[in-house]
Amino acid sequence: MDIGMIGLGRMGGNMAQRLLQGGHRVVVYDPRPEAVAGLAGLGAAGAASVTELAEMLVPPRAVWVMAPPGAPTEQTIAALAAALSAGDTVIDGGNANYKESMRRGQALAERGIDFLDVGTSGGIWGLRDGYCLMVGGPRQVFERLEPLFQTLAAGPDRGYSYVGVSGAGHFVKMVHNGIEYGLMQAYAEGFELLGAKEEFNLDLAQIAQTWRHGSVVRSWLLELAAAALKEDPHLAGLQAYVEDSGEGRWTVQEAVDLAVPLPVITAALQQRFRSRQDQPLSSKLLAALRQQFGGHAVRRAEE
Length: 303
Fold this sequence. Notes:
Elements: E1 2-6, H1 10-21, E2 25-29, H2 33-40, E3 45-46, H3 50-56, E4 62-65, H4 71-83, E5 89-92, H5 98-109, E6 114-121, H6 126-129, E7 132-136, H7 139-144, H8 146-152, E8 160-164, H9 168-196, H10 204-211, H11 220-231, H12 247-258, H13 263-275, H14 281-294
Parallel strand pairs: 1-2, 1-4, 2-3, 4-5, 5-6, 7-8
Antiparallel strand pairs: 6-7
Helix pairs in contact: 3-4, 5-9, 9-12, 9-13, 10-11
């Protein structure tokens, strides 16, 4: 099956490789010529523009977009809308906001172009282990392109599913990432407590490895924690600065809109915000208030 791939970052490039390994003809484009050349060296057909990519595909065409959310995705899909024809399909496998995906699906439908929003999980390990794919859009389009999802997923009978109409795929992925925030925070707090019990001199990497087998808290995230702690037992090479890519915020905002309590996920998101602050004002004010009402000692900035 023919497939176009736009966006050859780490994940997009790995997905293109997995499709090539599955026997699909893959046409690739990225603003970075070196990324296109790298995939061409593995058997993909390289294009120099979105328009050229569309011309190199056999109708009905399908193009998979792996661009950052926001303007890059918007611009890429707009360019595709101008290059494709009725009966073609745009697949957005990036982490777009589901409301934007609903809007894009409607706009493309008015041109006769189908749209699938595919929540994609698997990170940099997807090439080896396969991806988890959550597909939203017209069911008949999903069924027509199912061989692509079977190739990319962990297996032809697992790791992917049709979850609903346009927007549903990215909505499910949004909640997936919110859950991920909570799980990661729980592991982080637990290992911090283990490390704080200095009298036991606990080997955190060994404990993580032990928990991976038979424990009720075993998971892939725990496997990754074990690998990180083995490499750097005290994580001395890292700063305690944690970014968020947007989905956690969207999850919490959606929870507010629907009046669904998400205390764990919300707290995990707030902790990421806290990790980026140096000497936050709120903590300074707490110290000032204790001094004001009780005369408690404070540490001055120069100390």
